[in-house]
Amino acid sequence: MAIKRYAIVKMDDFEKTGSNGGVVIMIRYDDENAIYRKSDSPDDPHTVPYTIPEGCVRIKCSNLNCEPGWIYTDKTNFFVDSNYSTNK
């Protein structure tokens, strides 16, 4: 069983915003069969079924490229730190 890191992304309402992006609401570790773990630790041996909340999607991410609160961009589908700005 290979444990992967996934972002649970609350997608924008396309009907209202025209956006295909969203916001990372949580990080989950699970196997590739979508059995989610009770905690955010990949070492937690107890797995339980987990339903992805309505309006959300599960997207695989690395350990370094997403955190809760980050934005999943509309056109490029990248995770972007919402606290980072290039404005000086």
* Overall tally of domains: 1
Low-confidence stretches: none
What is the general shape?
globular
Q: What is the oligomeric state here?
A: single chain
Total helices: the number is: 1
Round the mean pLDDT to the nearest integer and report it.
78
- Helicity range: under 10%
**What share of residues are in beta strands?**
35-45%
Structural class: mainly beta
Radius of gyration: 14 Å
Number of beta-strand segments: 7
User: Sheet with the most strands?
Assistant: 5 strands, antiparallel
Distance between the termini: 46 Å
* Spatial order of strands in the largest sheet: 5-1-2-6-7
Order of helices and strands: EHEEEEEE
Structure commentary:
The structure is a single chain. The model has no long low-confidence stretch (mean pLDDT 78). A hairpin with a 6-residue loop joins strand 6 and strand 7 (79-80). The chain has one helix spanning 14-17; strands at residues 3-11, 22-31, 36-37, 47-48, 56-60, 71-72, 79-80. It contains 1 helix and 7 strands; from the N terminus they run E-H-E-E-E-E-E-E. The protein is mostly beta strands and 88 residues long. The protein is globular. The chain has a 5-stranded antiparallel beta sheet, with no helix packed on it. A two-stranded antiparallel sheet has the order 3-4. The chain has one domain (3-80).
Task: Show the helix and strand layout.
Layout: E1 3-11, H1 14-17, E2 22-31, E3 36-37, E4 47-48, E5 56-60, E6 71-72, E7 79-80
Antiparallel strand pairs: 1-2, 1-5, 2-6, 3-4, 6-7
